[in-house]
Write a structure and sequence with these properties.
single chain; about 350 residues; alpha+beta; Thiol Ester Dehydrase, Chain A; 2 domains; 6-stranded antiparallel barrel; 13 strands; about 30% strand; binds coenzyme A
């Protein structure tokens, strides 16, 4: 991987290899999320260590809603650009862009754009949050826009806090669900993973990118089980990383369908962590998020997906909430399209 560095920005590039692929052969959405997070972590950690005091590591606390605009193919080069765009007292915003480059034809495409928030944690004491050195803004307008984004995410976080505190695990997948009945239980899936050294930062806590890759993997399995066709990640709603996950923990990542439109599926993914060694320590919910998947035919055109069969009041409520998010996101995309025309 090559690295170009400036004070508060960074460029990485890497050729995409077969081990970056999903089963269809394109680059896995989780791999892209992991690259984005790595770039953000480098630029954020470097910036926060430009001051006196404890050395620190930038911990990922939030990823704003992100859309996968174009697939990246194996053999292409991914160019990842990260820049610090706002600093508050204890957190900083990094905006990241991923461009794919076909090195045979020279064609470049914007594959993904994301905004991430980091908090510097001291290496001496991970619970000590360090101050963030302020950046210089190109203009007063830029600073004001950053302040607005900071205020908006802070407000949204208060609203979603209640959801993360719900530690009740989703019910297990019912055995042998009736064939062709596309219920929530039919596609619900989980994976269990032991957090090892290669998943962790130098603090021995899991990298946010590793968690997002696992989440995308589970969401992909749920989507594929529901429609049995080629599926891709279309977008991820804002994710808040509320609790750290330490090396040696066991994480259970569970995905379940909440909503399906004609051509899209929304999957809620939970990451629950528990200590393997310390008996009696409660399982806790570290992260949860909504992933949207679509199914594509061989010409990369969106295919219809089977309707989701809803059972009971809880599933109905989640379906309606998913429908509201779907309508809101569709209206936003349409408005953006009109603005560009
Ligand atoms: N998104 C954006 N900013 C966040 C945030 C989130 N989800 N959570 C906390 N912050 C910011 C706050 O705004 C504050 O910054 P400010 O003073 O400039 O406004 C700063 O973090 C400290 O907030 P505070 O309320 O004092 O701390 P906390 O109790 O929220 O804990 C962490 C912060 C980082 C210790 C805690 O959220 C954590 O451990 N998260 C997991 C980090 C991690 O392990 N990441 C990898 C994921 S697998």
């Amino acid at each position: 991987m090559s690295v170009v560095q400036a004070a508060s920005s960074l460029q990485l590039c890497r050729i995409m290899r077969p081990d970056d692929a999903n089963i269809v052969g394109n680059v896995h959405g989780g791999t892209i999320l992991k690259m984005i997070e790595e770039a953000g972590c480098i630029v954020g950690t470097r910036h926060c260590n430009t001051q006196d005091g404890d050395r620190c590591m930038a911990a990922l606390v939030r990823v704003e809603k992100t859309e996968f605009l174009f697939p990246v193919f194996i053999g292409e080069v991914a160019h990842v650009t990260a820049e610090i765009t706002y600093t508050s007292t204890h957190s900083l915003e990094v905006q990241v862009q991923v461009m794919s480059e076909n090195i045979l034809t020279g064609v470049k495409k914007l594959a993904n754009k994301a905004a991430l928030w980091y908090v510097p944690c001291s290496l001496k004491n991970v619970d000590k949050i360090m101050d963030v050195p302020p950046i210089k803004y190109a203009s007063a307008d830029q600073e004001e826009l950053g302040r607005k984004r900071y205020g908006a995410q802070k407000m949204e976080r208060q609203e979603t806090k209640a959801r993360i505190e719900d530690v009740v695990p989703p019910p297990p997948n019912p055995e042998d669900p009736p064939k062709g009945q596309h219920t929530v239980g039919f596609s619900q899936s989980s994976l269990i993973h032991l957090v090892g050294p290669s998943d962790c930062t130098i603090h021995n806590y899991v990298h946010g990118g590793v968690t997002m890759k696992l989440m995308d993997e589970v969401a992909g399995i749920v989507a594929a089980r529901h429609c049995r066709t080629n599926i891709v990640t279309a977008s991820v709603e804002a994710i808040n990383f509320h609790r750290k996950i330490i090396k040696g923990c066991v994480v259970t990542v569970t995905g379940r369908l909440t909503f399906a439109s004609n051509k899209s599926m929304e999957i809620e993914v939970f990451v629950d962590a528990s200590s393997l060694m310390e008996a009696g320590k409660e399982k806790y919910r570290a992260v949860s998020a909504f992933f949207t998947y679509i199914s594509l035919d061989k010409a990369n055109k969106a295919l219809p997906v089977p309707p989701l069969k809803i059972d009971g009041e809880e599933e109905k409520r989640r379906f309606e909430e998913g429908n509201a998010r779907y309508l809101q996101s569709k209206a936003k995309r349409l408005a953006e399209k009109e603005r560009q025309e």
